[in-house]
Design goal:
This protein is of the alpha/beta class. It has a single domain (5-149), classed as 3-Layer(aba) Sandwich (Rossmann fold). Helices cover 44% and strands 8% of the residues. The protein has six helices and five strands; from the N terminus they run E-H-H-E-H-H-H-H-E-E-E. A five-stranded mixed beta sheet has the order 2-1-3-5-4. Strand 4 (128-129) and strand 5 (132-135) form a beta hairpin. Helix 3 packs antiparallel against helix 4 and helix 5 (84-97) crosses helix 6. The longest helix is centred in the N-terminal third of the chain and has 17 residues, at 21-37. The N and C termini lie far apart (39 Å).
Amino acid sequence: MTAPVFVDTNVIVYARDAREPAKQRLAESWLDHLWRERLGRTSFQVLSEYYVSVTRKLDPGLPPEEAWDDVNAMMAWNPRPIDRAALERGRAIEARYRLSWWDSLVVAAAQLEGCAVLLTEDLQDGAQFDGVTVRSPFTLSVAEPRAAYTIPSATSRHPRRGRPRRAA
């Protein structure tokens, strides 16, 4: 795969969650692959959620210093800020697809980062949002061929919207 992959909070958390060893191995495998290939992308929202989750929700949780080391390392991916463009796109996604606000911001960040894939278990595996395909890191293997990372979209039976093209 050569397109960037957006990583949601749950994938990074599972890489640290020893209570779910199968998911932990798969999440670690994905993160290792994305680091090696330099294809990983994320956002400041995701890193904030990660820090809170691993320091307050995991049992046992990570010490704040260790969680911050993880966040600091992920800064190498140049996380997407929550700026005007992300908020406006997130609002459009929320209205169009009826996603939660936080999920809409994740999808918006993935789109703005030019990602083809959004790795998460929080949205339906295979769902497509204007060029971004949701894939579960727990059903999609890193070893699968690139074609498996995307799900072909069906051809629409409806006519295109907008102005008709002029005949040449």
